[in-house]
């Protein structure tokens, strides 16, 4: 049995891989979201088409997000993940030194509008980046293909580059996961794996329930056409699942 000091040092140092991986993930998010979303909006063409398609997409996005949250809350209330980790939770009155402010609808909506796209990207404010990308894409689409074609081509190259970079970053994922699990096991013992297994099981149950709920909603809206849609999506979904990468299922230009 190694001395406690050695175990603590190992747990602290091995998480360097995890910290680097998380920072790499944060590094690619902003340019990837901006380039892919902007290119997608510009390629829709006329602003009337963007408004019609974008409105339907936003309604579906918000509705599916709410349903996903409700399913997640339901599974969490049943499983109680983390209950066996014996984590020391500070009392409510404990001063953590962090600035805490109440969240309101007004504050949330205001926060989604960026005062500076550079600041939004520097802080990885995804909603602010999405809002700016939407305005930027709509503005570019309104200029017409004659003017925005070079920009679309450039951003398309950027999006493909960022997808490649994301693929390279994901090569580090196994090492990062190994480092994170190794650190936890060294400090809390092998029994922690049972808690992780329970958490992962609950995660897959939540995904399955979410898919079933969304399919039910799709059936209400599309009737039997939803089954044809599922049949068309079967191959790309299987590719994305087996490769653990959504990029593998993206359509490729000839």
Automatic annotation (TrEMBL):
Coiled-coil annotated residue ranges, if any: none
Pfam families associated with the record: SDF (PF00375)
UniProt entry tagged with the keyword NADP: no
Membrane topology: Multi-pass membrane protein
GO biological process, one term: dicarboxylic acid transport
Keyword entries, A-Z: Cell membrane, Membrane, Transmembrane, Transmembrane helix, Transport
Ranges that cross the membrane: 20-45, 57-78, 165-185, 197-222
GO molecular function: symporter activity
Compartments reported by the entry: Cell membrane
GO CC term (a single one): plasma membrane
InterPro entries: Na-dicarboxylate_symporter, Na:dicarbo_symporter_sf
Designated name of the protein: Sodium:dicarboxylate symporter
């Amino acid at each position: 049995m190694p001395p406690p000091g050695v175990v603590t040092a190992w747990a602290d140092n091995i998480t360097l891989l995890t910290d680097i991986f998380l920072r790499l993930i944060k590094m690619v998010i902003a340019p990837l979201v901006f380039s892919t979303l902007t290119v997608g909006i510009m390629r829709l063409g006329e602003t009337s088409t963007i408004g019609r398609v974008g409105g339907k997409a936003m309604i579906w996005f918000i509705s599916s997000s709410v349903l996903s949250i409700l399913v997640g809350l339901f599974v969490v209330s049943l499983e109680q993940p983390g209950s066996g980790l014996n984590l020391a939770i500070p009392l409510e009155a404990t001063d953590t030194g962090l600035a805490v402010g109440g969240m309101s609808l007004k504050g949330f909506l205001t926060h989604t509008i960026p005062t500076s796209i550079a600041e939004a990207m520097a802080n990885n404010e995804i909603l602010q980046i999405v809002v700016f990308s939407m305005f930027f894409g709509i503005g570019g689409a309104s200029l017409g293909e004659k003017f925005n074609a070079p920009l679309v081509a450039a951003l398309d190259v950027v999006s493909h580059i960022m997808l490649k970079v994301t693929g390279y970053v994901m090569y580090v994922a196994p090492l990062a996961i190994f480092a994170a699990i190794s650190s936890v096991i060294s400090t809390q013992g092998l029994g922690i794996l049972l808690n992780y297994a329970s958490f992962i099981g609950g995660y897959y149950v939540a995904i399955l329930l979410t898919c079933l709920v969304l399919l039910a909603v799709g059936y209400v809206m599309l009737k039997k056409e939803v089954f044809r849609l599922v049949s068309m999506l079967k191959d790309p979904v299987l590719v994305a699942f087996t490769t653990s990468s959504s990029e593998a299922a993206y359509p490729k230009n000839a």
